[in-house]
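Re: beginner question about structure tokens

> Can someone show what the tokenized structure looks like for a real chain? I only ever see the sequence side.

Sure, here's an example I had lying around. Input first:
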Amino acid sequence: MLEISIKIEPEVAGPIVQDQIQRSNYVWKTAKFTAIVYNDPANAGVTWDVAQGGGSINQQGFFSPPVDCIPGTGRSTISATSVTDKTKSAVAICRY
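And the corresponding structure tokens:
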């Protein structure tokens, strides 16, 4: 039986600041990540998590940076973990 493996695309995203609307007020873009799961007979997908650095990611893979971050100073580690085999995961980086 083949082992489950996961790849996240893109592996690195960002910077994701779109525009500064006032001195300390920024409009942020979201970053979209896609998990590709290989050899999962259940085809159950992944759960997303922000492993380090803050921000949030929904189950569709859209990442938003922390609301209080300063552009150009942050990065978060995003993880995708197999629902079928929780020992299998992949990580990606988002800069903001």
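Each token stands for a local structural state, so reading them left to right follows the chain. The radius of gyration is 15 Å.
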